[in-house]
């Protein structure tokens, strides 16, 4: 049985339709991503899951609970990281983790949490004196302070440097391995690809596709692309005769071959039979980025 | 849980160095400064028969209440909303209204503490009486806290940011001090101004506290208007308060 079920969710702010019929369900133990450009309605969607906003229409069920009606029980079992929220400036890191832990029936081990998030050396630092990335990590720690069954993380690694981002991914995987279900809102393709079991791509308040990262890629463009410089030169026809090859393009010394199936194997073995060396060989696969562009018609805004 | 949140707020407030400075050190400093002047123990007809030490102790209490209610409370609450602290809390089992209540309890306790210190220090050093009509004094004090805090809550309810909360609070703060008789004693004011001042939030608080301190029963009309400020502003604040 899914732990989160969103059915035909609608939400508007005045004239702005933020969420326009969104449905998805998340299984226990899964890392489920919500991917979409700015203003797509990602935050609004997860805020309905958290019970912070009341949907205009549609049904949201989390752990069998109604996020609005069963707030007391839901908040015990769902940890939340908001896209934008701060702590009082003068509150120290360890104090914040201990205080938030005390709100829950089953507080997590605060010292361990601080350790795992690489904040041990900042435990007695006031929130106002932390860097953006450190604040972000505190906010993740607070989401986990109550040993939640589900963690909803909005823009998990925005503002983190590449190393911290990788560390955080690893942490999230550990958290999931402990059995926590994770609903993740993200802008980062790499993050979605690395972490998510399944992804819902949302655009203008609508779900464009729900699939595994690999499934999304395959759905868009199953074609592979090989680029190389043959030496000695070869006749394009030899390539075109291969059943796996669709097109051959020549630019200067370089050839670009597209096709499907075991394209690479077919091409390299043909070259080997003819004693031709493929220099500068490059295999290009459709990335999630390409898939995203194909699905939404635009490139996602990456914040470095 | 509530105690824990209140304790944390106490810690945070103490780290906000200017708050304890204005709320405790300033009123106490005023009392000591004026109290050690020669003649501070003599009843003064220009102060309605109060000694200047007793008068300044009451003024200090009034300043403390006004700073807490019109300044500290709206700045802190509007700031918490602006930073998303209230919203963040709404995602936990603790409802954000706890934080609001913790602040009110903490600041009310701070006000009571300062007033107790002023009474004790004034009594020991400068012979000012322990409030002679004690129940009336407590009623005046609590109603004063309720009135000024409710106005502060209303400011916090409508202020879009911590800075705006502080700004609006200031706009209310200085006229209140003036009408309340902090700059010039109400006894020295023109009659019209005095009549207005006696029914201003801080003016009513100060007058009733001073009366009760001296053993005169405070005017019921003044206590009633304080209760009215508390109820009206408090009701408006609960209607208008935005959590995000
Ligand atoms: N409180 C609000 N009041 C009015 N409009 C809002 C509010 N919150 C969001 N919106 C609008 O609703 C739409 C969806 O916003 P939402 O925050 O859900 O997008 P998002 O996908 O999370 O975007 P981002 O990637 O920038 O965080 C946007 O057009 C936004 O302007
Ligand atoms: Mg968002």
In a few lines, what is going on in this structure?
Chain A: One of its GO terms (cellular component) is plasma membrane. Chain A: Pfam families: ABC_tran (PF00005). The complex is a heterodimer of chains A (304) and B (244). Chain A has 304 residues and is of the alpha/beta class.
Account of the 3D structure:
The complex is a heterodimer of chains A (304) and B (244). By secondary structure, chain A is α/β, with parallel strands linked by helices. Helices cover 33% and strands 29% of the residues of chain A. Chain A folds into 2 domains: 215 residues, Rossmann fold, CATH 3.40.50; 64 residues, Alpha-Beta Plaits (2-Layer Sandwich). Chain B has one domain. With 244 residues, chain B is mainly alpha-helical. In chain B, 77% of the residues lie in helices and 0% in strands. Chains A and B meet through helix 2 and helix 3 of A and helix 1 and helix 4 of B. The structure holds adenosine-5'-triphosphate (ATP) and magnesium ion. Adenosine-5'-triphosphate binds next to strand 2 and helix 1 of chain A.
Attribute tags:
heterodimer; A: 304 residues; alpha/beta; Rossmann fold; Alpha-Beta Plaits; 2 domains; six-stranded mixed β-sheet; four-stranded antiparallel β-sheet; 33% helix; elongated; B: 244 residues; mainly alpha; 77% helix; globular; binds adenosine-5'-triphosphate; binds magnesium ion; membrane (chain B)
CATH architecture of the largest domain in chain A: 3-Layer(aba) Sandwich
* Rg calc of chain A: 24 Å
What percentage of amino acids of chain A are in beta strands? 25-35%
Count of individual beta strands of chain B: 0
Q: What value does the Rg of chain B take, in angstroms?
A: 18 Å
Order of helices and strands of chain B: HHHHHHHHHH
CATH superfamily of the largest domain in chain A: P-loop containing nucleotide triphosphate hydrolases
Compute the number of helices of chain B.
10
Q: State the order of secondary-structure elements of chain A, H for helix, E for strand.
A: EEEHEHEHHHEHEHEEHEHEEHEH
**How many distinct folded domains of chain A?**
2
- Termini Cα gap of chain A: 37 Å
Q: Identify the quaternary structure here.
A: heterodimer
Helix content of chain B: over 70%
Mean pLDDT of chain B: 92
Distinct ligands, ions and cofactors found in the model:
adenosine-5'-triphosphate, magnesium ion
Work out the largest interface and the residue count of each chain.
Answer: A-B, 25 and 19 residues
InterPro entries (chain A): AAA+_ATPase, ABC_transporter-like_ATP-bd, ABC_transporter-like_CS, ABC_transporter_ATP-binding, P-loop_NTPase
Pfam family, one (chain A): ABC_tran
Membrane topology (chain A): Peripheral membrane protein
GO cellular component, one term (chain A): plasma membrane
């Amino acid at each position: 049985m899914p732990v989160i079920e969103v059915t035909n969710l609608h939400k508007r702010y005045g004239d702005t339709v933020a969420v326009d019929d969104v449905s998805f369900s998340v299984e226990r133990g899964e890392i489920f991503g919500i991917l979409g450009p700015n203003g797509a309605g990602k935050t609004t969607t997860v805020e309905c899951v958290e019970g912070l906003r009341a949907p205009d229409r549609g049904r949201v069920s989390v752990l069998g609970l109604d996020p609005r009606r069963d707030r007391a029980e839901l908040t015990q079992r769902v940890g939340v990281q908001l896209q934008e929220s701060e702590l009082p400036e003068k509150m120290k890191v360890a104090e914040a983790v201990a205080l938030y832990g005390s709100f829950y029936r089953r507080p997590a081990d605060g010292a361990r949490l601080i350790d795992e998030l690489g904040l041990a050396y900042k435990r007695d630092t006031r929130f106002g004196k932390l860097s953006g990335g450190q604040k972000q990590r505190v906010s993740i720690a607070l989401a986990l302070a109550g040993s939640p069954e589900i963690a909803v993380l909005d823009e998990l690694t925005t503002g983190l440097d590449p190393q911290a981002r990788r560390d955080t991914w690893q942490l999230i995987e550990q958290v999931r391995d402990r059995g926590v279900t994770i609903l993740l809102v993200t802008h980062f393709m790499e993050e979605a690809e690395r972490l998510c079991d399944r992804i819902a791509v949302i655009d203008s308040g609508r779900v464009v596709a729900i699939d595994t990262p690999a499934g999304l890629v395959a759905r868009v463009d199953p074609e592979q692309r090989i680029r190389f410089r043959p030496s000695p030169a070869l006749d394009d026809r030899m390539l075109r005769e291969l059943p796996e090859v669709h097109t051959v393009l020549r630019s200067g010394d370089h050839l670009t071959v597209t096709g499907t199936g075991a394209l690479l194997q077919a091409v390299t073995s043909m070259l080997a039979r003819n004693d031709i060396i493929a220099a500068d060989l490059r295999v290009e696969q459709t990335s999630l980025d390409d898939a995203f562009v194909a699905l939404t018609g635009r490139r996602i805004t990456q914040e470095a | 849980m509530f105690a824990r949140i209140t304790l944390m707020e106490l810690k945070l407030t103490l780290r906000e160095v200017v708050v304890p400075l204005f709320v405790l050190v300033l009123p106490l400093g005023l009392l000591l400064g004026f109290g050690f002047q020669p003649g501070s123990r003599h009843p003064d007809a220009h102060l309605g028969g109060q000694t200047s030490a007793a008068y300044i102790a009451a003024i200090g209490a009034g300043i403390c209440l006004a700073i807490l209610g019109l300044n500290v409370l709206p700045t802190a609450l509007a700031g918490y909303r602006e930073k998303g602290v209230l919203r963040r809390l709404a995602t936990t089992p603790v409802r954000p209204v706890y934080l609001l209540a913790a602040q009110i309890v903490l600041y009310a306790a701070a006000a009571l503490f300062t007033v107790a210190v002023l009474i004790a220090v004034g009594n020991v050093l400068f012979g000012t009486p322990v409030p002679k009509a004690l129940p009336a004094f407590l009623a005046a004090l609590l109603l004063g806290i309720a009135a000024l805090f409710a106005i502060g809550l209303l400011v916090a309810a409508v202020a879009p940011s911590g800075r705006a909360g502080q700004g609006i609070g200031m706009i209310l703060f200085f006229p209140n001090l003036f009408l309340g008789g902090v700059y010039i004693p109400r006894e020295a004011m023109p009659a019209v101004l005095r009549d207005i001042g006696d029914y201003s939030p801080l003016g009513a608080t100060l007058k009733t506290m001073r009366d009760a301190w001296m053993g005169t029963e405070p005017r019921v009309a003044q206590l009633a208007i304080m209760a009215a400020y508390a109820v009206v502003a408090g009701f408006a604040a609960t209607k208008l308060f935005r959590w995000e």
